[in-house]
């Protein structure tokens, strides 16, 4: 089998691992798919587990974010050291996001893809990614609404990518970034509807 295809499959399968679901199940004895918002992301891990132990909930929420970010970042780093082309790396990034949002282990359902996106973006555009993470954290801290924080962070990243890396060295296109942003917005449509209806829950 072609080496590129093998890396694509690995990126998708690793991206598909529902770390939030596993962490909540084995450390909190909770099924995230049938608790809280039903999402497998860190926000739902925090929301559900805080009912049992608020301090541990924050720790497990943070661990979920790190795991979701690293499952996108580490395969790309390894592939880079192995000498794979930048186009292959970007394709792996997109597939990692697709894996998280449409996991083969969850009947092609999944999370919102924000943490995994920032994980892969840290490799390609670290300055933009770090600023996007800061925006994400600050908006989340002051507004206490995870969806607004996530979308603000992603939009900030996309805007900064045009300002700081308009030419996108190596691929000469922002297409992968737009595609990833589109997936994230698509997965947030229910949240956007609730925001419009002023029914979106805050995270304490």
TrEMBL record:
- Kindly state which reaction or reactions the protein catalyses: an acyl phosphate + sn-glycerol 3-phosphate = a 1-acyl-sn-glycero-3-phosphate + phosphate
Q: Which UniProt keywords apply?
A: Acyltransferase, Cell membrane, Lipid biosynthesis, Lipid metabolism, Membrane, Phospholipid biosynthesis, Phospholipid metabolism, Transferase, Transmembrane, Transmembrane helix
User: SMART domains of this UniProt entry?
Assistant: G3P_acyltransf
Q: Which GO terms describe its biological process?
A: phospholipid biosynthetic process
Annotated Pfam families: G3P_acyltransf (PF02660)
Q: Which GO terms describe its cellular component?
A: plasma membrane
Transmembrane intervals: 6-27, 59-82, 88-106, 118-139, 145-164, 171-189
- This entry's Enzyme Commission designation comes to 2.3.1.275
Write out the annotated subcellular location.
Answer: Cell membrane
Pathways per UniProt: Lipid metabolism; phospholipid metabolism
Q: Which InterPro entries match?
A: G3P_acylTferase_PlsY
Show the GO MF annotations. acyl-phosphate glycerol-3-phosphate acyltransferase activity
Q: What does this protein do?
A: Catalyzes the transfer of an acyl group from acyl-phosphate (acyl-PO(4)) to glycerol-3-phosphate (G3P) to form lysophosphatidic acid (LPA). This enzyme utilizes acyl-phosphate as fatty acyl donor, but not acyl-CoA or acyl-ACP.
- What is said about its interaction partners and assembly? Probably interacts with PlsX.
Q: Which family does it belong to?
A: Belongs to the PlsY family.
Annotated protein name in UniProt: Glycerol-3-phosphate acyltransferase
Which species expresses this protein natively?
A: Campylobacter blaseri
């Amino acid at each position: 089998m072609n080496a590129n295809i093998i890396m694509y499959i690995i990126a998708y399968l690793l991206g598909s691992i529902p770390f939030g679901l596993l962490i909540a199940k084995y450390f909190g004895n909770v099924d995230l798919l049938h608790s809280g918002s039903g999402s497998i992301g860190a926000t739902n891990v925090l929301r559900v587990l805080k009912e049992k132990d608020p301090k541990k909930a924050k720790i497990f929420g943070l661990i979920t974010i790190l795991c979701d970010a690293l499952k996108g970042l580490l395969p790309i780093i390894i592939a880079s050291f192995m000498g794979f082309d930048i186009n292959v790396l970007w394709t792996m990034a997109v597939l990692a996001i697709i894996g998280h949002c449409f996991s083969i282990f969850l009947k092609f359902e999944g999370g919102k893809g924000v943490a995994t996106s920032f994980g892969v973006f840290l490799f390609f555009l670290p300055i933009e990614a770090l600023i996007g993470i800061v925006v994400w954290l600050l908006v989340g801290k002051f507004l206490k609404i995870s969806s607004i924080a996530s979308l603000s962070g992603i939009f900030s990243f996309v805007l900064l990518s045009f300002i700081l890396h308009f030419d996108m060295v190596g691929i000469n296109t922002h297409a992968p970034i737009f595609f990833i942003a589109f997936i994230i917005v698509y997965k947030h449509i229910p949240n956007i509807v609730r925001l419009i209806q002023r029914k979106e829950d805050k995270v304490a």
